């Protein structure tokens, strides 16, 4: 996991490395404009340390080794107690070794650890006097920091006034959530500024910026609470003697935001094994967190253990950072490809100079739409910060604008459809070929015939290409009027496969409306949304009669989506009519149409919910299903949940009531455990919904 250090061959290379590291650090802590990503920086510092170990008499005074912030930052406001950095471990073995060394220092096995996410922002000390926030100070060089009190009032989670009139110092991390970062860059570029490369840099830059004409929000998470010189004696004694976990509870009671409000709250652990189990849990939850973490911080929880272990000049000995692999790397944007999807949407995709992030080689990243490219001010040849966590599709955070050489080229947007040459409809943020779903008919039909839509066995992409090439099919409805002779005329179509396909196509006519609707591929409506629409309206006629306002009654459809769904359904009228004429089912079994008198959203669904065993529940399915559920696709599981009165969802959140966790369930299970959500095995779940299994 640790990348090897840079190899330094002589004193001149060493001096250059020290200079580069100090420069990178200064930029990193000042506003995130470092030319190195963290891996590259850490490699450089390891190289410096290795050379110094062999040449202890030639260590330069500027060397970053052994210093808080690599010695690159200073401050003029002294800290009452040093604000240190943390030492690192990278594996269970290294952590176990560290815990053994800690036990040697304290004279006994540490009884209790606290385990917290390592928030990826910057450290700050907030001084409260009689409950009022008076001063904000950065970590600086550890002994003195910079006064950034001008940021008071712009940091969520750091109240101006505590719940009690106490005099204390709260320390913690200031960061930008992913949403705050997006917003910050939007506001910043709108004001003519360069975008920040990543949330950490954005927080650092924003915190130090004084006279900005605009403010962008940040978020604070407290992780330490200590007395100030004029803190009342009794309170000071209490703060000095309390365990870390108790201090965190106290900070939260004062009204300070802590990790307790997140999906990865700080916890305590009584053994090394428990610590490592929690490390795995937090690592599994990382991709879903709305903010960045770069590791897990493990601390001796009890004050007595902390005092016995003591601190070095750079880091305390009673705490350690268990580093997780970097999820951000700097690479270059080489090209932008424009691909047409099954609905005719023309989606841009970034082609990157291949870069390894957390064990995977990344060559592509999503770019949502042309407006997104413009907003981010991306150019071909730009160095870009690429983010990839878990299985989430890699994304470009922002260009590293100050690395520009002037040779970067603007990204050219297509003027005609790159697939068929037709015009482009640019009226929505996501551009679309004027031919719509006919542009990429094979993709549209393959999707429609797929298992979760019309489920037509024997109609794979190859066959569809044959049908389209032979001119037998020009839209979805044509599938339903194919004759035996037409199919037999195709290459490699024998009697049996023809009969089977004819039967499968005929059977598809009886699919419920939800699947027919899904097969149409209306933009913005996937499987679950199609089911919700079909259940809400019960018939295709009702759906087509709905205006935007009526469409918004369906859960999950807002003011933006509703009009575009209505418009697209109108556009699909000829096709829907044609489908209905061939005998395709246009009703949803078991659903009752909304009555005009019913008020409030989704009343038809509420009525249904009242009946089933999953009434009022939000259910997430993860892992492999077994037993009677073994052959159900994820979509069929979701259909089952909804038949039984529940709501299906694909992501675990506080709103989730039940997680059906099969074999191999990973991060969703871990998250459910972290949130204390009820878990069920596939068998238990099957029993619960037995009446609804068909
Ligand atoms: N890209 C660059 O050019 C560059 C330059 C300098 C440093 N860096 C990176 O910064 C890192 C070193 O920075 P550092 O000295 O700030 O140390 P660090 O970030 O590795 O660890 C110490 C910090 O962790 C933070 N932290 C987060 N959650 C915490 C919690 N729950 N409890 C306690 N502390 C918590 C605190 O701010 C604390 O100061 C390196 O990993 C390096 O890659 C990068
Ligand atoms: Zn096209």
Give an account of the 3D structure.
There is one protein chain. The longest helix has 21 residues, at 11-31. 35% of the residues lie in helices and 19% in strands. The chain is of the alpha+beta class and 694 residues long. Residues 602-609 have low confidence and may be disordered. The site of zinc ion has 8 residues, from loops. This is DNA ligase.
* CATH homologous superfamily (4th level) name of the largest domain: DNA ligase/mRNA capping enzyme
* Helical amount: 25-40%
**CATH architecture descriptor of the largest domain:** 2-Layer Sandwich
> Could you report the average pLDDT, rounded to the nearest whole number?
92
Strand content: 15-25%
Instruction: Write down how many β-strands occur, each being a DSSP E stretch of 2 or more residues.
Output: 25
Kindly give the count of domains: 5
How would you sum up the global shape?
globular
The description of the largest β-sheet is: 5 strands, mixed
Q: Unreliable runs, pLDDT <50, ≥5 residues? A: 602-609
Family: Belongs to the NAD-dependent DNA ligase family. LigA subfamily.
Active site: 118
Catalytic activity: NAD(+) + (deoxyribonucleotide)n-3'-hydroxyl + 5'-phospho-(deoxyribonucleotide)m = (deoxyribonucleotide)n+m + AMP + beta-nicotinamide D-nucleotide
Binding site for Zn(2+): 417, 420, 439
Helices and strands, with pairings:
Elements: H1 11-31, H2 38-54, E1 77-78, E2 88-89, H3 92-106, E3 113-119, E4 122-129, E5 132-138, E6 144-145, E7 155-156, E8 168-175, H4 178-190, H5 199-208, E9 218-227, H6 233-241, H7 244-254, E10 267-269, H8 272-285, E11 293-300, H9 303-309, E12 319-323, E13 328-340, E14 346-357, E15 360-366, H10 370-376, E16 379-380, E17 383-387, E18 395-399, E19 409-410, E20 424-425, E21 432-433, H11 441-449, H12 461-469, H13 484-488, H14 495-508, H15 513-520, H16 527-537, H17 540-545, H18 548-551, H19 561-571, H20 573-581, H21 603-611, E22 618-622, H22 634-643, E23 647-649, E24 658-661, H23 667-675, E25 678-680, H24 682-688
Parallel strand pairs: 2-12, 7-9, 22-23, 22-24, 24-25
Antiparallel strand pairs: 1-6, 3-10, 3-11, 4-5, 4-8, 8-9, 11-12, 13-14, 13-17, 14-15, 16-19, 17-18, 20-21
The chain binds nicotinamide-adenine-dinucleotide and zinc ion.
Nicotinamide-adenine-dinucleotide (NAD) binds next to helix 1, helix 2, strand 3 and strand 4.
């Amino acid at each position: 996991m640790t990348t090897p250090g840079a190899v330094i061959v002589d004193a001149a290379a060493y001096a250059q490395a020290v200079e580069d590291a100090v420069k990178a650090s200064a930029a990193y802590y000042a506003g995130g404009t470092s030319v190195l990503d963290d891996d590259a920086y850490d490699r450089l510092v390891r190289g410096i340390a290795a050379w110094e170990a062999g040449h202890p008499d030639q260590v330069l005074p500027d060397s970053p080794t052994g210093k808080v912030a690599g010695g690159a930052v200073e401050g003029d406001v002294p800290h009452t107690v040093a604000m240190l950095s943390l030492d690192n471990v990278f594996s269970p073995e290294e952590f176990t070794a560290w815990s053994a060394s800690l036990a040697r220092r304290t004279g006994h096995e540490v009884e209790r650890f606290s385990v917290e996410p390592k928030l990826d922002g910057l450290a700050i000390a907030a001084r409260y006097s009689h409950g009022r926030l008076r001063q904000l100070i950065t970590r600086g060089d550890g002994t003195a920091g910079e006064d950034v009190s001008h940021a008071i009032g712009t940091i969520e989670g750091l109240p101006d006034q505590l719940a009690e009139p106490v005099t204390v110092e709260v320390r913690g991390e200031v960061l930008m959530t992913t949403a705050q970062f997006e917003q910050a860059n939007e506001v910043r570029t709108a004001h003519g500024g360069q975008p920040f490369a990543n949330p950490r840099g954005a927080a650092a830059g924003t915190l130090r910026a004084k006279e900005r004409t605009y403010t962008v929000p940040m978020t604070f998470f407290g992780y330490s609470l200590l007395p100030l010189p004029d803190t009342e004696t009794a309170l000071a004694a209490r703060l000095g003697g309390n365990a870390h976990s108790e201090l965190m509870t106290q900070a939260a009671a004062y009204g300070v935001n802590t990790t307790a409000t997140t999906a990865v709250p700080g916890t305590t652990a009584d053994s090394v094994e428990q610590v490592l189990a929690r490390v795995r849990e937090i690592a599994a939850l990382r991709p879903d967190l709305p903010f960045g973490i770069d590791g897990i911080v493990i601390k001796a929880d009890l004050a007595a253990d902390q005092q016995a272990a003591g601190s070095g000049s750079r880091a305390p000995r009673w705490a350690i950072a268990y580093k997780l692999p970097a999820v951000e790397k700097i690479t270059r944007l080489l090209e932008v490809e424009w691909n047409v999807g099954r609905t005719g949407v023309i989606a841009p995709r970034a082609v990157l100079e291949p870069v390894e992030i957390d064990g995977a080689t990344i060559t592509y990243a999503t770019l949502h739409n042309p407006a997104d490219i413009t907003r981010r001010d991306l150019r071909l040849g730009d160095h870009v910060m690429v983010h990839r966590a878990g299985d989430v599709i890699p994304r470009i955070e922002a260009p590293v604008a100050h690395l520009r050489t002037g040779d970067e080229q603007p990204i050219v947007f297509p003027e005609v459809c790159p697939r068929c040459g037709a015009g482009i409809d640019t009226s929505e943020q996501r551009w679309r070929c004027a031919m719509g779903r006919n542009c990429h008919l094979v993709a549209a039909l393959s999707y429609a015939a797929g298992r979760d839509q019309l489920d037509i066995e024997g109609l794979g992409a190859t066959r569809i290409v044959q049908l389209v090439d032979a001119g037998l099919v020009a839209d979805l409805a044509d599938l339903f009027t194919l004759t035996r002779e037409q199919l037999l005329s195709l290459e490699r179509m024998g009697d049996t496969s023809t009969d089977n396909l004819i039967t499968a196509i005929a059977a598809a006519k009886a699919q419920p409306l939800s699947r027919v609707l899904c097969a149409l591929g209306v933009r913005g409506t996937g499987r679950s949304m199609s089911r919700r629409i079909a259940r809400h309206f019960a018939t295709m006629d009702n759906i087509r009669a709905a205006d935007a306002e009526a469409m918004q009654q369906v859960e999950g459809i807002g003011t933006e989506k509703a009009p575009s769904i209505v418009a697209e359904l109108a556009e699909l009228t000829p096709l829907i009519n044609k489908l209905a004429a061939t005998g395709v089912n246009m009703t949803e079994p078991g659903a009752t149409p909304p009555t005009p008198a019913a008020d409030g959203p989704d009343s038809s669904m509420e009525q249904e919910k009242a009946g089933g065993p999953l009434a009022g529940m939000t259910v997430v399915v993860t892992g492999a299903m077994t037993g009677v559920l073994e052959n159900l696709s994820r979509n069929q599981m979701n259909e089952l949940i909804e038949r039984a009165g529940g709501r299906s969802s694909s992501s675990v959140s506080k709103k989730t009531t039940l997680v059906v966790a099969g074999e191999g369930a990973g991060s969703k299970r871990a998250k459910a455990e972290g949130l204390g959500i009820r878990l069920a095995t596939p068998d238990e779940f099957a029993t619960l919904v037995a009446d609804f299994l068909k």
